[in-house]
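Note to self: keep these together.
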Amino acid sequence: MDNIYTENDTASRTMRSQMSYQRALSQYRSSHGLSRVSWVTWGVVTGSIIFWCVTAYQFALATGAHNAHDIVATVINNAVNIQDKDNDALSNVLIAFGAKDNDLIIQGQYWRFVTPIFLHANLLHVGLNMLNLAVLGAFLERLVGHMRFLLIYVITGVVSIIASFYFVPQEISVGASGAIFGLVGAYSVFVLMHRRAFRKGGIPALLWLIFVIVGNLSIGFFVPNVDNYAHVGGLLSGCLLGWWFTPLYTLTQDNTLVDKHSLSRRWPLALLTIAGTLILAIIARLFIGG
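Structure:
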């Protein structure tokens, strides 16, 4: 008899997980017009590319470029690796546009906890990050909705900069990779919560995500100027926000599927998350600047 109850309970949990997973995947289809488009993702991608174009132009001018040919040549020469002779010029331009610089943050420029996630060093940097964001972001935004996606992206991006601020205070840091790791963390938790909806209990899917995470983090051990502290900060905060805010549908008494993690239900937790991020930044600032 106990075995029958156990089997029924397992089957019930599996069914609930499958219903929640399928509803989360298909929820965006009930939207219309612009609300059906991943406009936050495409807005961030477009804005980041525009910012890179502006900083790349200013960088080229700072290195002595005087015409369009020289500007293009400078961008191409630094597309993969920044030339040693151009390092200072690039750093100065990025700092002017909002890169993470501990000395300036300590002096009161706290907006530098946010702006670095929209800046990039060179063509390879912005290209890889925006490709990853376009692929993962467009999917995840449809899954969680526009406002939850924006919350996860910005908060995990800021936490990644806070981690960089605290653990590598000597480095000038820019890039969206910390926020992208945050998206990966949030999606990983979503898969974990709905593992019964996947074949073999979600183990293959989770192992693949672990492989992707470890593989990307390992790049930081072999490629110079990769800020793994920012990546880990984004990843861990993404896992936490994924646990709090990624969709989890339950069946009500009138057989209606309701998302327990929607912002309309969890807005106090969203406000606490924003406040907690501010407090984390203040603590990091006190420890570094004290």
